[in-house]
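We modelled the chain as a single entity of 183 amino acids. Its sequence is:
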Amino acid sequence: MTISDLPPKPDFAALEAAAPRSADRRTTILALIGNVVLNWSNNESLFIFVLMLLQKTDQVSAAILFATLNTTRARLDLIQRLARIKIKDKALSRELDDLIERFNEGTHIRNELNHCMYTVDSSGEISQTQSMRLVQTRGNLRFGETKPLDDARVNEMTQAVREMARLNRNIWDFLPRLEAHLR
């Protein structure tokens, strides 16, 4: 008999039978993941308006330019470079940098939750995540970090959703000030 390097196949029938007992917790976790993604996407999209104002163009043209760059990092780099030459008010420039920094913090948890494998335990609860990132340390290469999806992690996700919602309002408040400055 050959020994496999694969993990054991889950007992899907047992998981499905246990799932109703953990449905509330699973629903909470899935709602938090959805809210992280929704808030992050809305915040990223608001940077189209920042680009529109910096380029003194229309929304569609800014969206085309934004979408042409294939990573969030490239989009934000463009915005920051344009801001350096267009925004003369140091406080306004620092505020934009702060908004981008806060957005990047939200990006970490969004990437973590979007690019992982979720483990469901025998009671049907989502018990942990395993990152899809390779981690290299002094000659070792291992596959992704494993983190429990415990109450502390749920609280971290809840706080991230709240911060992203605050960031959204802060970007909306920033946009008219940027527009007035660039006129």
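As a brief sanity check on the tokenised model: The longest strand covers residues 126-131. Residues 87 and 181 are 8 Å apart (CA to CA).
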